[in-house]
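User: quick one
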Amino acid sequence: VTTTSVADCGERALIARVRDRLAMPSWVVIGPGDDAAVVEPVRGALEVWTTDAQVEGVHFDRRFVSPEDIGHRAMAVNLSDLAAMGARPRAALLSLALPATLELTAFDQILDGMLALGARFGVTLVGGNVTFSPGPLMLDVTAVGTVHPRRILTRARARAGDQVFVTGSLGDAAAGLAHLQAGRRDRAQPSESRYLRPEPRVRAGILLGSMRTPVSCVDLSDGLADGVRQLAEASGVGVSLDATAVPVTDALRTDAAALGRDALDLALTGGDDYELLFTVRSSAVGRLRGVRGQMDGLALTRIGVVTKSRDLVVRDGASTRELPQGFEHFR
Amino acid sequence: VTTTSVADCGERALIARVRDRLAMPSWVVIGPGDDAAVVEPVRGALEVWTTDAQVEGVHFDRRFVSPEDIGHRAMAVNLSDLAAMGARPRAALLSLALPATLELTAFDQILDGMLALGARFGVTLVGGNVTFSPGPLMLDVTAVGTVHPRRILTRARARAGDQVFVTGSLGDAAAGLAHLQAGRRDRAQPSESRYLRPEPRVRAGILLGSMRTPVSCVDLSDGLADGVRQLAEASGVGVSLDATAVPVTDALRTDAAALGRDALDLALTGGDDYELLFTVRSSAVGRLRGVRGQMDGLALTRIGVVTKSRDLVVRDGASTRELPQGFEHFR
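Assistant: Done. Structure below.
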């Protein structure tokens, strides 16, 4: 059996291979294949632009992250950034740096994972670039969304007295990654799939933006502690988290014990959950009921309060400790 | 003397370091520092999006390409793509994958080169991403421009009988690169600086778009032969080039001889010139006089004709040969 590598195929043929899979909506005046894409902006909307990279050996390990997962994750982390702004995804550009030995089937599967997730959120891949990498596989996605001016979520709107919430449950992805790294469990487990196939909280972000009250929001890529720190810094406030309220599943508690870790610690310092952390004025908390009803069962959990003092603390019953540092890939 | 690396500095501090250098115009509603940038689109204009990567060991060699050059080139190749669409540059996003050992001063110089070129063309850096690379230094720039619907240049508008033109002179960058690779000459030489500091033909692209006649255009990143091939394929036509008309400077002829190469061959198959190749209806060639007068001395040279037969040929006096293949990094 001979396998074909991306180098056998060549740069132009790879680009043509991607282009053949894409269908363009009418607002794309010129799609992939020219020097650049030309698109009509949405009237009356602001545009939201973000770019995020996935680098082999830093963000994923090809021994246990499949090509489809790699493609899914590269798109998901960008859609998660759009979600944190309350934006509706619209388009993406993809820049790939490929090891020459990458199999063509793996290349196709990366696209499969990326395009499948994109399609679920109405994302059109309008352009991109393919080049060779003498080192790791790298994927850079630029995602573009739209948001109406009064519906933008930022990091900088938290005020003392606001209530702090989080979507879904935390720590699962970190537990899943730990199991995958140890080679102990297969990828079909729930926590493993939380790591391999993060679900961007796009609908939640859009709904939070529709509340007509100031909402501060950040997505949790590097753990709850990091998200709290970033939101608090941007808003010039402090946060007091209630350790007992942080949403960790029973399955995570069991997982954490098996890993010799504390479930709360995984939630605070483990990355890759891609849930939304947000603050709402106390007076507007009631409006979350309507939002919750439209979130298809996604949990919203109150986990703390914004404080005037800029301290970042975790309360656990009677004791209070400083918020730990989050995870930083560079360190 | 101790030097500080980007890893010593850390991801967040690097991002803050970039952010501190930037000033945002009023159309940037939310700039760098949040989950994504939020911008107002330009009323009545279409948007032009492109992304292009520069990978160490593929697109540049740090032994003779300085950090400023790297930054300049990463921005230039994207502005050149905008130029080929007739677009006016507006904004950019930057995704960096950095070896941990990269010196902080080099990081700053990469930004220097990129921001200096961007500023000359009115580009605002509105967002980006910084991550670690376990391999080569990689820079991915996404550039955004605007164009009015009737002023778009595409690759697909050439028709039999159109005249083929090129801006500036060709082959210099390839000669410069060859000298730099051989360690034979310094970076201050004209052909070396053509390679190290390509000048995107933004003004030329905008002027060509204003001619009110169908113009096909592509930028020359991988040699004239490759550009001709791409434009012809997109338009479904052939091209007959006149070898004696291809603009090569006397300096290049001397350079080529010293390198044991043919000047025309460098022009046809050498990359990195970033001139614009374009076609104009024969009836509209006269309008180029007005355009030429506004191009600050940039040459426009007629180098061939578009043919109905889809052959791609180079005529040289009485002889005719097939157009050579262009340069492809992947092969």
